[in-house]
Amino acid sequence: MRKVTLPAIAILASIVLHAQPLFSKDQQKIQQAVVKMFEALSGRDSAALKTYCTPDITLYEYGLVWNIDTLIRKGITLNQAADFRRTNTFDFIHIETDKSTAWVTYRLNSAITREGRQTMIQWLETVVLVKIKKQWRVKHLHSTLIKRS
User: Do residues 49 and 72 make contact, with C-beta atoms less than 8 angstroms apart?
Assistant: First the structure.
């Protein structure tokens, strides 16, 4: 019995220690704001995108500074392939909050299909969100490209 119990405890401990951290309800709302922003971008819905961003959002992409107009132009207006599809997967690493500001770090994996070709892209991103009228909105987003295939 002892031979079975010790390995079982070791396996269970390793699973628990490697599990994604549990997030509070407010942290889950913050996660949802980030996910919904990317869903709006993936759905090429600029009106919905603006509801998850502050009007003065800054995005740090590929060494450049973007605003909401740049994001809409590059992510929606210039992206009109009929077969376009983007699926995002998030691995939230850390969320820190106070009453009206949140700092979030996550890995983003996106499968993007355009003109018959699929590209897989991985980023490490940090966002700062602010709470406006009880809704979390992205104010700053810094993106580091990890891999494109």
Answer: yes
Q: Which two tokens stand for residue 70?
A: 């740049």
Q: What is the model's pLDDT at position 1?
A: 53
Q: How many residues does the chain have?
A: 149
Q: What's the pLDDT band for 17 if we cut at 50, 70, 90?
A: very low
* CATH assignment, 23-148: 3.10.450.50
The mean pLDDT value for 92-121 works out to: 96
Check if the beta carbon of residue 25 is closer than 8 Å to that of residue 136: no
